[in-house]
């Protein structure tokens, strides 16, 4: 080290010592002005601060190696030793802890030997060798004092009451830092060729930290002052530490290989650096490594796994970003839940008309094949009663808490990426479930995961219920407007039908040309019948058609509908088993025409629409399949069966809605399965006529028995 650099470090050391002296004097005056009830141990702490300020001023004036500086440092150390011992007296523990007094006495004796060593060195003329020996003995004594005082500090903090330890933790941490720095400083001087001017220049800065810690400890709010690093800072700090350790190991390894010497050593050194650099470029950006690091940071540095403030802000931002991107509300619901557990993807299942759960939305999970009835209705009641989060790994291992295992479908048990099922409950009613995929860093779900996911599920359920209420209100308003308009249409059609009926009646009485008027009568009568049929159909929406059920042959109906499209679009029957169901022939034909028409509109000119008629012992089915543009699960859920929502230019948007309502009115069901770009499949299910008749007779018999019991409650059989 050059003479100029030593001079610069000496100037820096003097500046930090002056700053340390000023800080100690300021805190000493501030402590002395405090009320006596708030200034515990005011006299010894003030004396220690004044002794430390004196040492700083002497060090700034004469340098770190002067004899007077050594004596001033002894005064400083003894003053802080007295403060620590008074802490035991203040707690009333000096009599119980018998090793304390001998340890304090020994430390005071070791430190008291420093002035004697200074006097002996000044009185003897032993030259440079004696001076170096005295410096080594002094450094050794200071090392012993630092180690012993650190042990004493640990004893003070470990046996203190909880509230007392919390209040004085800053002062103890600062004194520990001062003693640890002195231990390092004197150890380096004892083992090396002399004391480091760089370390000496930092001693005043350590004193500033001690004074600030004493000020914080004496503050009325010291118990509330805690070091709470954010998770981002902790994660980044640990990441930098890992990277630093890695590159440090690289340097040590390269230096070690250089000891081989010659060309072989240089080759091994270069090869090691290249391999280590390539490994760093591959491993450090890894998502799996970052996930492992994040989990271990949270596990070992924080009391809780989650930063709830950050999670809540991210949660609300994800749900409320309706104006960003193309993500639908259902996708945002899944993403908000998946972000909590770092899940890469997920599904949203929503209740269908028959109580089962069907696919509502996907988030980054396009390849999973989800059946139309994804979860049975039984699982819905279990979620509503118990409000539990289903750990799929436990379900696969056979663990069954609430009887949910028999209701789990095979497709979900077999999908190893499925990790957890979170119910969305609003006022104890299930509005949907979210299936989360397994995160990249595999871990087990714990109580904190369950609590946070359960609360987030309730919040999402309230958002979904609010959106459903708004949609229902909008739909009701649209229906109200539609009803007002259709009332005028029905009135006009009714008048027209009455006029045509009157015309037909008059023509029968005043016919001059029988042949002509006969044709006119047929035409008018047919028109009148059609208008009256239209009126009847418009007037029966929402009413059950079970009482007017007739036997309908589905195969004959399918052939009749296919004949409508001869010459316009290919509609083919792949299977036409004879199947007699109970329903309304006209309503069923109208519903099938709506569905086939939609498939024709969605298909290219040469792509046929396939009709398939089949049956089993309970129900008959007509499947309408096409290879057209298909539909997304979101559109099926939110738009397909919503009135006044149409993808066709100029369309009313009531065709699919009317078809489903007509089929439901006949006791049937309409299922839809579609994929975007692949096509759609509509399945009409209706009860077999014989089964429907048996069910009707059974209900009638039970009703008659109930009536007889009411009329003759005391009759003995």
From TrEMBL:
One of its GO terms (molecular function) is protein histidine kinase activity. Keywords: Membrane, Transmembrane, Transmembrane helix. The chain crosses the membrane at residues 6-31, 105-127, 139-158, 170-188, 200-220, 232-254, 266-284. The keyword Nucleotide-binding does not apply. It catalyses: ATP + protein L-histidine = ADP + protein N-phospho-L-histidine. The keyword Oxidoreductase does not apply. SUPFAM superfamilies: ATPase domain of HSP90 chaperone/DNA topoisomerase II/histidine kinase, GAF domain-like. Residues 488-690 form the Histidine kinase domain. InterPro entries: GAF-like_dom_sf (IPR029016), HATPase_C_sf (IPR036890), HATPase_dom (IPR003594), His_kinase_dom (IPR005467), Sig_transdc_His_kin-like_C (IPR004358), XrtA/PrsK (IPR014265). It comes from the Bacteria. It holds the Pfam family HATPase_c. PROSITE patterns: HIS_KIN. Its EC number is 2.7.13.3. This is histidine kinase.
